[in-house]
């Protein structure tokens, strides 16, 4: 499997099969599934055309990651960016400060 396939595979598994899912009510699960679908939808396009993800896409992923915060990248973003060899800013706050 190439690095892009590996990164997306790991992200899908973590986001859709993680332990955090067990705690969701039906309504929370429906909302989460919708949001994660939006976050994952364009990743193949970005990896094919740009060879990396725009930082805003990492923000969407980080928002859904149980380990992510507004000031620290969660495990999903760190693992994804490391796998595709993309350097992230030190903190998600940097992206907000550039807007």
Summarize this entry quickly.
The chain has 99 residues and is mainly α. Helices cover 64% and strands 0% of the residues.
Explain what this protein looks like in three dimensions:
The protein has six helices and no strands. It is 64% helix and 0% strand. By secondary structure, it is mostly helical. α1 packs antiparallel against α5. The longest helix is centred in the middle third of the chain and has 16 residues, at 26-41. The protein has helices at residues 3-17, 26-41, 43-49, 55-64, 75-83, 93-98. The model has no long low-confidence stretch (mean pLDDT 93).
Supply the number of structural domains. 1
Radius of gyration: 13 Å
Number of strands: 0
The span between the termini is: 36 Å
Largest sheet: none
Q: What's the rounded overall pLDDT mean? A: 93
The assigned structural class equals mainly alpha
Q: What's the number of helices?
A: 6
Roughly what fraction of the amino acids lie in strands? under 5%
Shape: globular
Low-confidence region ranges: none
Helix content: 55-70%
User: What is the H/E string?
Assistant: HHHHHH
